[in-house]
Write a structure and sequence with these properties.
With about 200 residues, the protein is α/β, with parallel strands linked by helices. It has five helices and nine strands; from the N terminus they run ββαβαβαβαβαβββ. It has a single domain, classed as Rossmann fold (3-Layer(aba) Sandwich). A seven-stranded mixed beta sheet has the order 5-4-3-6-7-9-8, with helices on one face.
Length: about 200
């Protein structure tokens, strides 16, 4: 190799993008780093989820335990949620979430940089009406998170779980809604006896 020959530099990966579907920020773009395992909930799945939850989340307090791109949390804020707490352990991803919140002028946005299980174990987090649980596929974190959730749930709370396989639950949990889009399984859970009517309209 000639001394003057240089190995071409690999250009830095371009940020990935996701579009907010509805609400006050409809069609606004959120960017996030192209990190391994970071995958936003697909548009089709988010649309179905927020049909389940109701389009207007005014006054709802939400927790996004594995925030990643922030697609679920920003979608909730766009639809009127009073507060969304996003938990993200990656500092580079957390920095992108801060930047997105600043661009959107997102009131009610709160970021916790740390581990989701540690957040659930810490006192003083308050109670939430909606919790998003969308950990990396194959991590086994859904099974670890669910037993720790009751202490942070408001009465009648809904829990969204996304995974690469159908989730089976035992009491006091029940699956109120379940869908599949390709390899993505998505569920809406709630707590309560299986004989209750529940807070969500209808079963799948």
């Amino acid at each position: 190799m000639s001394p003057r020959t240089r190995t071409p530099r690999t250009p830095p990966a371009r940020p990935s993008r996701v579009r907010i579907i509805a609400g006050v920020w409809r069609s606004r773009i959120v960017t996030f780093p192209a990190e391994p395992g970071l995958r936003p909930t697909p548009d089709r799945v988010r649309e179905t989820l927020f049909n389940w939850l109701g389009q207007d989340l005014t006054g709802k307090r939400c927790l996004d335990l594995f925030a990643g791109s922030g697609a679920l949390g920003f979608e909730a804020l766009s639809r009127g949620a009073s507060e969304v707490v996003m938990v993200e352990r990656s500092r580079s991803v957390a920095a992108a979430l801060r930047e997105s919140a600043a661009r959107l002028d997102a009131h009610g946005f709160r970021l916790v940089v740390g581990d989701a299980l540690h957040f659930l174990a810490a006192p003083g987090g308050g109670q939430f009406d909606i919790v998003f649980v969308d950990p990396p596929y194959g991590s086994g974190l859904v099974a670890e998170v669910l037993p720790r959730l009751p202490g942070v749930l408001a009465r009648g709370a809904a829990v969204y779980v996304e995974s690469d396989a159908a989730v089976g639950v035992d009491r006091p949990w029940r699956v109120r809604k379940h869908g599949r889009a390709g390899a993505v399984h998505y569920h809406l859970l709630e707590m309560g006896d299986h004989g209750d009517q529940g807070c969500l309209p209808g079963d799948v």
